[in-house]
Each structure stands twice: as C-alpha cells, then as structure tokens.
Amino acid sequence: MSRPTSLDLPEHTTAHRLETARGSFAVLDAAPAPNAPARHGTALLVPGFTGSKEDFLDLLAPLSAAGFRVVAIDGRGQHESGGPREEAAYAQRELAADVTAQGAALEAAGDGGPLHLLGHSLGGHIVRAALLADGAGPWASLTLMSSGPAEIAPDQQVRTQLLIDHLPTMDMETAWRAMRALDADREDPAANPDWLDDFLHRRWVTTAPEQLIATARQLMTEPDRVGELAAVPLPKLVLSGEVDYAWPVPQLDAMAERLGARRVVIKGAEHSPNAEKPAETAAALIAFWAGEGAASSK
C-alpha cells in the first residue's frame, strides 16, 4: 500500500465532496498555484486496492505548482466516500461508471482545459474499464501507474486469497491485526511513525469490507484487455517503479509497447512511485500532460 510522507494538506488544497450523477465522493482538490507559469487543465487520480486519495498527497504540491488542478478521490466504499454493504455494488462496471460520472462532473465545473485520467494499480483496471465502456469521452490522456495488463502475479494471488477467505468471517479490526501480522514477515510495521500507523489503521477500518472482497477478486481474475485499450484514441503513459511485486516490470514494458504508450520507469521506486519518489513521478506526469496529453485535446 502507498504510504504518504505527511498528511498535511499542501497549500491551495481542500478536502471536500465531489457531487456527481452517481453520488458524492470524498476528494482532495489541489487548485493550480496562483504563481504557476500556465494553467494546464485538470487531472483525476484514482487509487488502488486498499488505497485512498491520500496515496497521492505527495504529488499535489508539485503538480499544482506546474499549473494543474489535481483531484485525488476515494472511490465508493473506500475510506471517506462510504458505500453499500453488498459486493454487487463494487462490480468493476459499477466502479468504472463512477469514474465516468466523476469525469463528467469535473468537465462541467472545469475551466475548459484538458482532463487527464490516472489510475494506480487496481485503479488502472478501473479506469481502463471506464474507457472501454464509454470511449475517450472527455479525457485528454490516460496514465496507468503500476498497473498491469491482467491479473496480479501468482505470489500476490496467494496473499489476496487469504483476505477473500477470512474477511467475511472477521470484523475489520481483527482483519487489520491479521494483515499486520502478515506484513511483519516482509517489513517491520513498528517502523511506521505513529501518525502513519494511525492513518493506515483508520483507512482500513473505514473501508467497506465488501469493497475489498469484490476488488480482490477482480485483481485475481482480470483478463488481458490491452488490445481493446490500444484502440482507444488517447495518448497513454505507463509509469512504474524499477520493481513491482504485483506485476513484473517486464510485463509492464510489454504492455506499454502493445499500447503504443510512453514508458517511464522511476528509479528507486517500487509499486508506489507516487509516494516513494513523488518529485520524479510528478516531473514525468507534468512532461506527459503538458506535452502529448495537452496536444491531444486541441
């Protein structure tokens, strides 16, 4: 999971609700900095499995300083957005339709500039499904961040299956303790500062368990739809770290080639370049959005 370096909101950033035709969603909304050299449009950032809008906190300041309005969102059932207590509500088509509604709301309230779409990890599959259902729509570009062509790697399938097996029989607090015990095999949970551990715990227990179960199944069964996505006429960027435990990096390289996408690998980052190397990640996004993405909207 992504671990932000701080929960402090950057300057010119507000936490509020984005009202859409499919409901209300919690967002962090970073306005373009007043001294930005130019206004470049709006970007919608969609988080991944067990994630939330806070995954993108470290990107907000550099992106807004470059002239972008940046809207990071909690999807339905994630953290502060809330959602139904039934798995059917989190079918991929439902989550994709939410993204389409979020884009429509941003387009209606925007300044007429290009609208960019980014999905991290599971969020990449969700935004892909939105584009395949509705075409390019209002979007000027697509970024897939640490998100692969199909199902997650076999070792991650084992871990994810454990969650599917046990969440229906556990309350979220008990599940949290069990997941932390598993994490102790790979890392020391006590190494997190208290504020971060408190946030990760709060985010976990406020996420709908049905959302986690449904999206875990999606990660384990997602088909390869790269060929379909390649036919959507949008500039595309595939961005990742040098190492990725969910989808091997060579798989991401091959996906970018099949998509005809720009490919960026962030040195020193793993599955969450947004939090692990935010300055380098923001620079890559700015170059893409202010270049190919902007040109496509003209």
Automatic annotation (TrEMBL):
Keywords (alphabetical) are: Hydrolase
A Pfam family this chain is assigned to: Abhydrolase_6
Say yes or no: keyword Hydrolase present.
yes
Q: Which InterPro entries does this entry report, sorted A to Z?
A: AB_hydrolase_1 (IPR000073), AB_hydrolase_fold (IPR029058), Carboxylesterase_BioH (IPR050228)
Q: Where is the AB hydrolase-1 domain?
A: 44-284
GO terms assigned for molecular function: hydrolase activity
Q: What is the protein name given in its UniProt record? A: Lysophospholipase, alpha-beta hydrolase superfamily
Recall the taxonomic lineage recorded for the source organism: Bacteria, Bacillati, Actinomycetota, Actinomycetes, Kitasatosporales
